[in-house]
Fold this sequence. Notes:
By secondary structure, the protein is mostly beta strands.
Amino acid sequence: xxxxxxxxxxxxxxxxxxxxxxxxxxxxxxxxxxxxxxxxxxxxxxxxxxxxxxxxxxxxxxxxxxxxxxxxxxxxxxxxxxxx
Length: 84
């Protein structure tokens, strides 16, 4: 799953991969999971890793500080944290 949005004036992309969340500044890419079950995402004719924020052709997305707030979801349900 990917979520793109603007937070504090920054365009961001949040990836879910391997049960963790990774947040990067979005360079204007429409990132989509390469295949179901994969942890790689494709955009702009390249494959990107959410673990590093880098593409196979050496571009990178600046990493943002992020935390997984599981306690909120435990109390309010999985759909209570973010609604596009």
